[in-house]
Amino acid sequence: MLKIAWSEVYAHPLPDNHRFPMIKYDLIPEQLLYEGTIADHNLFEPKPASEKLITTTHDIEYWNKLKTCSLSKSEQRRTGFPLSKQLVRREMVIMQGTIDAARHALKNRIAMNAAGGTHHAFTNKGEGFCLLNDMAMGARYLLNNKIRQKILIIDLDVHQGNGTAEIFKNESDVFTFSMHGDKNYPLHKEKSDLDIPLPDFTDDVTYLDLLEKNMAVLFERVQPDFVFYQSGVDVLETDKLGRIALSIDGCKKRDHLVLSSCLNNEVPIVVSMGGGYSEKITNIVEAHANTFRLAQELFF
C-alpha cells in the first residue's frame, strides 16, 4: 500500500500574504482522493520530529534559534518566511513525515511525503523557504540506525540542492545528485557529488535524454540501497521562477524515469514534493499529482 505523509499543518502556518506557496498542500491530497488515486487509508499524519533527531543533522545553536524564534531579521529574510512557533512546528512535522515515509518505503518499496524537499536548509542556517532539511534527516536516520549503508539523493527541483550538498560534503555514504537551472537561485552553488547545470529554456527532449543517461550511470556507480527523491515541479515552462521549459507530460516522464529506475534496481525510494510556482495552481497540482499517480501505477 502506498503511504503518504500529510498533515493539516503543511498548509496553514502563515499569514494570508504568504499563503500561495502553501495552498497546494491542501489541494493535492483533495484531488487524489476525489479521483480515487488514493483513499483515506493511504494518508498518515506524522508527529513533530524530536530535538534528538533534528540535531543529528542541524547544529544545536541553529536549532535553539529556531525553537525560540530568535533568528535575526536578516536570517529570517533569507528563509523567505516570517518566523513563528507554528512555522517551526510545521517543519518538525515535515521532518518526521519523511523519516516515517522511509520506514514505510522499507516495507512497501516506495512512500511519499506530500510536502518536504527542503533542500536549501544547511547545517546551520535556512534559505529559500527551507528551515530544516527533511531528506538529509531521513538519510541520517537510516545510516545512524544502520538500516542502510549507501544513500542516493536525487534532486530534480529547478534550484540546486545547496543545503543538502553542504550537509553531506564530507560524507561518502551519501551521494548527492542535483540537476538544476544553471543561472537560477541560488547564485552561489555548493558542490554536490554530481551537478548537472542546465541552460535556460531546456526542453523535454534535452532534459529527459540527460536524465536517462545519468540515471543509468548513477545506479551503476553509486550502488545505492536507498533513494530520496526531490520532485519539485518548478521545472515547468509555466513556472514563474524556473526558467526551464518542461511540459507537464515531460515532468511526468521525468518522474517515471526516477521511479522506474528505483523499481528496476530494487531500491526503496522516498519522494518529497519540492517547489512549484506556476501562476495557475492547476498546473502545480496536476504536475505533483502525476507523481503520486505514477507511484500507484508502477509499484502497486
Q: What's the topology here?
A:
Blueprint: E1 4-5, H1 20-35, E2 43-44, H2 51-54, H3 60-67, H4 73-79, H5 85-108, E3 110-113, H6 134-144, E4 151-155, H7 162-167, E5 174-181, E6 194-198, H8 204-222, E7 226-230, H9 248-264, E8 269-272, H10 281-299
Parallel strand pairs: 1-2, 1-3, 3-8, 4-5, 4-7, 5-6, 7-8
Tell me briefly what this model is.
With about 300 residues, this protein is α/β, with parallel strands linked by helices. Helix content is about 45%, strand content about 10%.
Instruction: Name the strands of the widest sheet in spatial order.
Output: 2-1-3-8-7-4-5-6
Could you say what the CATH topology is called? Arginase, Chain A
Number of domains: 1
Strand content: 5-15%
**CATH homologous superfamily title:** Histone deacetylase domain
CATH architecture, by name, is 3-Layer(aba) Sandwich
Distance between the termini: 7 Å
Nearest-integer average pLDDT: 96
Which sheet architecture does the biggest sheet show?
8 strands, parallel
Class of secondary structure makeup: alpha/beta
Topology pattern, helix = H, strand = E: EHEHHHHEHEHEEHEHEH
- At the first level of CATH, what is the class? Alpha Beta
As a percent range, the share of helical residues equals: 40-55%
How large is the count of helical segments? 10
Q: What form results from the Cα inertia axes?
A: globular
Number of strands: 8
User: Taking Cα atoms only, what radius of gyration do you get, to the nearest Å?
Assistant: 17 Å
Low-pLDDT parts are none
Domain Histone deacetylase: 20-288
Protein name: Histone deacetylase
InterPro entries: HDAC_classIV, HDACs, His_deacetylse_dom, His_deacetylse_dom_sf, Ureohydrolase_dom_sf
Keywords: Hydrolase
